[in-house]
Specification:
Blueprint (H helix, E strand, L loop, with lengths): L2 E5 L3 E4 L4 H14 L2 E4 L10 H14 L7 E7 L6 H8 L4 E6 L19 H10 L3 E3 L13 H16 L5 E3 L5 H9 L4 E5 L1 H5 L23 H11 L6 E3 L8 H4 L14 H11 L6 H13 L7 E10 L4 E3 L2 E3 L7 E6 L1
Helix pairs in contact: 3-4
The chain binds N-carbamoyl-L-aspartate and zinc ion.
Length: 343
């Protein structure tokens, strides 16, 4: 049997939600990942250190049994985030970044930023304290094609921002386009990116495969095959700027299978297994450890984990549904056979 042992990975972009969903989804993440950057897009959003500490306690309380999972907290950037908020975050050992959601860009982004230039003093403080800004890199104007929103964000928002603040640490979250890969490669070492398993695995055809597939809808939306190939090349390149971030984003089944289905794929139960498959398919299994376990902590100034995990080559069937209290969640690859699993 073929096995692969690597340093236990971290997930540098994760949605855990609250309440019964949090309790239902946390075990899958804890199983594969030692730490995770936890996204703050709750209702209401996690906007200050006190809220982050309260959310962190809820996560630790939901942790199964003898779990040594670490929740790396983030704060939601709003039009009202001040330089003092940045200073407070920089001084807190559990808060690791701010997340920029352009207002209206995605799930629970209504409190997001409406004008980045107006936040300059706050962003300057982030550069000064070296607190990373995690960006959802899409413009929101209705007149920009949904498949072009990442590329337009680079030209209209991110390039000018980094010209104004060349020392700002930025993680371009869930990169989806060739233009995004090129931008990150050309930028300084202060700019990195996360890559999801689903954007490495699927192109936009997956949303329209013999009918509309709401469980393949996420934001930024899946792109055409040439973009997927650029993402895979970046992931397997060994370049330190690229690291694992699942963007696992659980929603109850009814909200996905709806006349206006919401964005987000629940990938935590299959993500590490899919990354292994993608790296193997591209003859790059030897690069998986750097991508999954080394590049992220290096960017965030943290130590790599000391634990190891083993994956083995063995077929298993992904459950078609996960029960979350009174709700049901359909995971990515529901009912499909995967070829790697945790030993
Ligand atoms: C995320 C969610 O559901 O919170 N949805 C998604 O499609 N990725 C939000 C986000 O990361 O954009
Ligand atoms: Zn996300």
């Amino acid at each position: 049997m073929k096995t692969l042992t690597i340093i236990k990975p971290d997930d540098w972009h994760l949605h855990l939600r609250e309440g019964q969903i949090l309790e239902a989804v946390l075990p899958a993440t804890v199983n594969s990942f030692r730490r995770a950057i936890v996204m703050p897009n709750l209702i209401p959003p996690v906007t200050d250190v006190e809220m982050a500490m309260s959310y962190r306690r809820d996560i630790l309380n939901a942790c199964p049994g003898d779990c040594d999972f670490e929740a790396l907290m983030t704060l939601y950037l709003t039009d009202h985030t001040s330089p003092a908020d940045v200073q407070a975050a920089a001084g807190n050992p559990y808060v690791h970044a701010f997340k920029l959601y352009p207002a209206g860009a995605t799930t629970n982004s209504a409190s997001g930023v409406t004008s980045l230039p107006d936040l300059m003093p706050t962003l300057e403080a982030m550069a000064e304290y070296q607190v990373p800004l995690l960006v959802h890199g899409e413009v929101t104007h209705a007149d920009v094609d949904v498949f072009d929103r990442e590329a337009v964000f680079i030209d209209h928002v991110l390039s000018p921002l980094l010209e104004a603040l060349p020392g700002l640490k930025v993680v371009f979250e869930h990169l989806t386009s060739r233009q995004g890969v090129e931008f990150v490669l050309d930028a300084g070492d202060n700019v990195a990116a996360t890559l999801t398993a689903h954007h490495l695995l699927l192109n936009r055809n997956a949303m329209f495969n013999k009918g509309i597939r709401p469980h393949h809808y996420c934001l930024p939306v899946l792109k055409r095959e040439t973009h997927r190939q650029a993402l895979v090349a970046a992931a397997i390149s060994g370049n330190r700027k690229f690291f694992l971030g699942t963007d696992s984003a659980p929603h109850d089944r009814a909200s996905k299978e709806s006349g206006c289905g919401c964005a987000g794929m629940y990938s935590a139960p299959v993500a590490l297994e899919l990354y292994a498959q993608i790296f193997e398919d591209n003859d790059a299994l030897d690069k998986l450890e750097a991508f999954a376990s080394l590049n992220g902590p290096r960017f965030y100034g943290l130590k790599a984990n000391s634990e190891q995990i083993t994956l083995k080559k063995e077929n298993w069937q992904v459950p078609s549904l996960i029960q979350a209290g009174t709700e049901e969640i359909v995971p990515l690859c529901a009912g499909e056979i995967l070829h790697w699993r945790r030993a």
